[in-house]
Amino acid sequence: MENLPSSEGTESLHINPYTVKDHGWRGLSIPGNRKRKWYTVIHNDKLLVTALLTGIPGEFGLRHSHETGELSIHFSDEMRPEVTWNPPGVMHGGMPAPKTNLTDAVAASVAQSEALKGGNADVAQLVGMITELQEQMADLQRQLREAVTAAPAPRVIIDITFPPFRTLIDDPALPEQKVVTGQWYD
């Protein structure tokens, strides 16, 4: 199970993830841009540390959760570190959820239809303008987020999981759920 010299000793470990023997690809068998290169940095009876090469534009991992949780460390850009804790059983990763709120769109359409039925064309026009302004504001917010986000570039994410190292993979791209113990191979 050990990938490296014992971390039980008194020496600090300094590891270049790209030089470790245990590495491979995730997501090669999944449709779309889901492949990620992974490296096992440390794997012993206390923790599993995986380095993932990510950040390729349009790339998404798989939606999954870890039985004992996951600590994830990465940089949004050169100056913005992020540490994320995904508690045990919390699904994360995968394709982002759609931003459009269908309920709001239907409600706006119904409000506009009701105003027209009431014979007040001015109110109906106002409801339509408000709906259009909301869509424009959402688009401007998206543009602003893109403007302040670093240019897409490969990056390394360090994921740390704990015994028993069980991961539930439950992604719409897969035909069925899958449970993996230890490093993911696919």
Brief synopsis:
This protein is an alpha+beta fold and 186 residues long. 24% of the residues lie in helices and 26% in strands. The two termini are 19 Å apart.
Portion of residues in helices? 10-25%
What's the rounded overall pLDDT mean?
78
How many helices does DSSP assign? 2
CATH class of the largest domain: Mainly Beta
Shape: elongated
Low-confidence stretches: none
Number of domains in the coordinates? 2
Major β-sheet annotation: 6 strands, antiparallel
What is the CATH architecture term of the largest domain?
Sandwich
CATH topology of the largest domain: Jelly Rolls
Strand order of the largest sheet: 1-2-3-7-5-6
Secondary-structure element sequence?
EEEEEEHHEEE
Structure class: alpha+beta
Indicate the radius of gyration in whole angstroms. 23 Å
Beta-strand percent range: 25-35%
According to DSSP, the number of beta strands is 9
